[in-house]
Amino acid sequence: MKIGRLQAFSDGVFSILLTLLVLDFKLPAYRDGHLAQAVLNQWPILVAYGLSFFYVGTLWLFHHDYFAKIKETNWQLNVLNLVILFTVTLINYPTSLLAESIAQQQRNDMQFAFSYYALVALLISAMFWVLYRFMAQHHELTGYDQNHERFYQRTKNDPLKSVTIYLVALVGIQINPWLGAVLIIAGNVFHFIAYLRLSQGIEQYGLIKKG
Amino acid sequence: MKIGRLQAFSDGVFSILLTLLVLDFKLPAYRDGHLAQAVLNQWPILVAYGLSFFYVGTLWLFHHDYFAKIKETNWQLNVLNLVILFTVTLINYPTSLLAESIAQQQRNDMQFAFSYYALVALLISAMFWVLYRFMAQHHELTGYDQNHERFYQRTKNDPLKSVTIYLVALVGIQINPWLGAVLIIAGNVFHFIAYLRLSQGIEQYGLIKKG
Amino acid sequence: MKIGRLQAFSDGVFSILLTLLVLDFKLPAYRDGHLAQAVLNQWPILVAYGLSFFYVGTLWLFHHDYFAKIKETNWQLNVLNLVILFTVTLINYPTSLLAESIAQQQRNDMQFAFSYYALVALLISAMFWVLYRFMAQHHELTGYDQNHERFYQRTKNDPLKSVTIYLVALVGIQINPWLGAVLIIAGNVFHFIAYLRLSQGIEQYGLIKKG
Amino acid sequence: MKIGRLQAFSDGVFSILLTLLVLDFKLPAYRDGHLAQAVLNQWPILVAYGLSFFYVGTLWLFHHDYFAKIKETNWQLNVLNLVILFTVTLINYPTSLLAESIAQQQRNDMQFAFSYYALVALLISAMFWVLYRFMAQHHELTGYDQNHERFYQRTKNDPLKSVTIYLVALVGIQINPWLGAVLIIAGNVFHFIAYLRLSQGIEQYGLIKKG
């Protein structure tokens, strides 16, 4: 089967998830004439929204480029993609918890919210690791050749590195929530770098034209 | 008319419905420093979300593969597809009721919520049965041949089996809600198996290439 | 410019609007053990949802078939399509008002809600009339020929008939809200019939192949 | 990489954002029999919705035509497009604030809401300016020639003009919120005119066929 509808469906889920995140911005209770102060106090929502938008956005970029070199799909890949999308949609809720707990500045609650976020991020990266492994074993879906192999060797450990970052973040959060926050952001930056490597690798090895 | 826009529109509805389900996760009332406990008490939402995500996801997989062998659409198929999508969107509300009633652990309410869920699932399967029947009578839309016929004979009773499972579930729920829950999950597992059979059948009989 | 992205964008708006309508189903206040009664009392939501799902669904069917015979777009058609989509999205709110006012059974409120609904439906039909007129004057977008002309002559008054039905409905609602409700449903049925005529006309005159 | 999925993803975000705006219409508190008055008092929601629908709709038109002349994408354009979409989604919240503050008629709150709206609009235009600059330097993505150059020279300052309008609006709002409102609308009208110039320029210079 062609990969087209899998891509379209995934694009749908990613774009809806990104856009639903804006629903976290809700009119605050405020006194007449003090709307500005009430909205500015909502800065944690903007921070959490920005973080998750770029995280999910990067995941979409990644998904976009990664599937660009795949020609065919089968039921296993369909199911695997569905599980990946499931884990990605889970990020929506901890995004709200993040904003809420930062606004309240309660340490325990921040630790919980950050841990939840890191755990979902860890799950997402773990699922991408499964995807990498699966694609390495199903050459019939990509028109696998030496270039694919070289590319795979270069990038195959990226998801495990992400998993490790989020594991460290989970530990760090228990020590100090802000240390955990820095590690979560580091994880997102790492995803972005991994995306750049993926994108450049695909071009360098000519995987789309040859694939 | 080409089948492309019908697929795109259906992909849209499926992906939006899946993603809207995350809106069921709502910030609970909680005391400062006890966010973790309040969120962990929301486990029924996660369970209901997981169940419906995989149910609707499987329906999408099914829809994806089933329509992959169809080349053309006409007004009847357009309308039939719309009715199917209508029944699928109805699952959103009983998913919330499921989570709510499990959280409250009130037997009557659980029986009602589970029955509602099973009833919608039954309706969806019944509509797929109508779709199977319709496609068997409109060979002009698929480029029907002996392989299509053999495939149809092998799979034609799948939707009726699903309907039967949900009928049994409806009875079971009245005896014990958890018995009904097991039967609903059995129904979802059966859908997944039916999807695998569909996917393999399409490949085995070469329905997409020849269709 | 190709018509493809206009169709994809419109499919997006239609499918999101349809699916957002399910958000009208909200957990009611209820006493423990009486969830069933509370949900069954929400039947007006189901009625309003069913009505609007099939109305918007029929509009999508219509849009689907109508644009299937168009090959190119220009800025005027892009803008016109955007205005049509704007009027269609407006149906979401009177759908909620419909459900609310039927639930409360307050005559004045029902008259207002039904009038709002009929007014938006009237606007939508009026915009489709503008679309018909526009397409009749821009033959370069369709590869216009005698068959297009014959088809146009046969269907050109359909939107004005719809406008008339909704005008009558607006008057009828002031006499008796239920009379208005019947006329609104009549309008929706008329849309469906107009869709069938459109679909058959396109096939009969071979507008897609020749267009 | 082909530009197709970037367009599909962007169409998704635009169409979802447009449709989510309808969620601002919420059932007001009202006394039995006075629903009409309560809903009519919500006119600021309709005004804000209309404004943002046409603003975001125009941005989509613009995006549609602008990317129609681009053939390929690379990681920089993917990221840039994501940042543009991020800024566009931010318009959702000030749209709600606009409606709320106009309804309350409190001058300070209106100034804040209008300023927020103008600031997001300014950001969006600034990002489009970055896009224009980027495309002028990456001819390999469009099949750049003399016509592209002429077209670029003619339109290159459009985003800066928009930025200027919104800067003036930001100042104007501090003097009188309604003056600011007029300038925001002027900005939207300017976008629409810029879109028309873009659309006509693309046709005149034959950028899509040659591109």
From TrEMBL, chains A, B, C, D:
Where does the chain cross the membrane? 12-30, 42-63, 75-94, 114-132, 163-190
- Do the record's keywords include Repeat? no
UniProt-listed InterPro entries: TMEM175-like
**Any one annotated GO CC term:** membrane
Q: Where in the cell is it found?
A: Membrane
Keywords assigned by UniProt? Ion channel, Ion transport, Membrane, Potassium, Potassium channel, Potassium transport, Transmembrane, Transmembrane helix, Transport
Q: What is this protein called?
A: Integral membrane protein
